[in-house]
Write a structure and sequence with these properties.
The structure is a homodimer. Chain A is α/β, with parallel strands linked by helices. The first copy, chain A, has helices spanning 7-19, 35-47, 75-84, 95-98, 112-115, 118-121, 125-140, 152-164, 194-199, 202-215, 221-233; strands at 2-4, 24-29, 50-55, 89-91, 105-109, 144-148, 170-174, 238-247, 261-269, 272-280. Chain A has 2 domains: 2-174, Rossmann fold (3-Layer(aba) Sandwich); 187-280, Pantoate--beta-alanine Ligase, Chain: A,domain 2 (2-Layer Sandwich). The A-B interface holds A 7, 11, 103-111, 113, 130-131, 134-135, 138-139, 141, 160-161, 164-168 and B 7, 11, 103-111, 113, 130-131, 134-135, 138-139, 141, 160-161, 164-168.
Amino acid sequence: MKLIHTISETRNQVLRARLRGWKIGLVPTMGALHDGHMSLVRRAKAECEFVVVSIFVNPTQFGPGEDFDKYPRTLVEDVEKCRISDVDVVFTPSASEMYPEGFNSWVEVKGYLTETLEGEFRPGHFRGVTTVCAKLFNIVQPTCAYFGQKDYQQLKVVQKMVNDLSMPLEIVPCEIVREPDGLAMSSRNSYLSPEERKAAVVLSRALSKARAAVTEGERNAAAVQEIAEGVIRLEPLASIDYVALRDAETLQPIDRIRKPAVLLLAVRIGKTRLIDNAFIPTN
Amino acid sequence: MKLIHTISETRNQVLRARLRGWKIGLVPTMGALHDGHMSLVRRAKAECEFVVVSIFVNPTQFGPGEDFDKYPRTLVEDVEKCRISDVDVVFTPSASEMYPEGFNSWVEVKGYLTETLEGEFRPGHFRGVTTVCAKLFNIVQPTCAYFGQKDYQQLKVVQKMVNDLSMPLEIVPCEIVREPDGLAMSSRNSYLSPEERKAAVVLSRALSKARAAVTEGERNAAAVQEIAEGVIRLEPLASIDYVALRDAETLQPIDRIRKPAVLLLAVRIGKTRLIDNAFIPTN
């Protein structure tokens, strides 16, 4: 496994794989790797002959007052996990390697998809995400890039960018990986105190209860949202940013569940902001 | 030579060339091909084993009230010129192939480089240019893309996009091709009446006179601009949008010529807006 800090050397390494006709998999991460990330790596290893994991805490996707400075950085452990998983290249650029002085080119998905939900609570976030993803795609030129569904809106935004701009790769969505009690794995879970960690289970519990109601026949979107909100409101440490049942493709609000939908949550547990979601099938 | 209207078939054709290890050249055009375009094609043919010419009058780079509707469209003649020049693929997508319903992803170079000169007179123009170029680069994945220096600011904007976003291709700038009397070749020259056509020579004449002054030792930017403006003001059919001596890399204004500079003109001849420029060496 090679640990690489520069764009040019990453290109060199990937080129050798490409000339052999190998499929190239990219797993873009911000590090602090957990089992959710490693499930993406396993999927990439299963499908591609050459796997690149990028580790880059991307400053342009954090807003002022967000957690860029305190975001967990565990590079030594991350590299070891990648080595054990037989990753071929770990690409860990510096901020100045990715954004040299004078950098001012941006890739942006406009419209409702990036204005709602996370876009509303984190202005500029998705512009940072799409720009860094576009740049990573250009550097690695992967056959496939692997994204977790926990960041469901991010996945939809990246898919739209790839489709609109005809980027030559496939985006592979991967299942959410959860702790035994249901909490979706996230690097930000490390912010939680023991008490908050227990409280954080309300997100997945709210999703489960709402899903169960749909399974039992509930089709009214407001009623389904209300069930999820009710669960979260019972937890004193939790405060809701949004609970939203949306069309699974467009993320537009819906009145009734007729097409595949997704229930999306953003909840603050103490000072830690967590997101989670569940797919809501139509039957 | 293949004439192709779809993104997927263009990809298929280029893939065959790529698998042979061939260099792939892209000449992006809006059609109405003249000897300037064909010089780009010749350069691409000399350097690459496989050459794609795209012909697409890109709606997103025209502003309201600009000449999108009347822009010359000469597809039959264009295709014949490409055939004679041994082009491998002519890619002529429809607007809906490039911008399907709901398209809303944009690539944009921000800052002074796109705000000044053409950016000031044509708001949104460069966002359309960079978005369509990014999309064409993703579709064709060329080794090299060939751009004429007549659109000098466009060249610098595209180069900045490619550098900032680490796009995996080389931008090849090509010399301006001129009519015998000095007028830079442009598809928009076809708008000119015979009288206007004669008047249009003031652009290249102004550049020549300004350049000659620099050769003779003039280093003051305002004085050099004044010489060019003086030539244009003598032509009653001409009206100046800008005459600007700028740093050749940043397009920032300069007081004195110390580094390579470029003199850029935008002049309306009757209702036709023409641009031209000349490189100003430091000695």
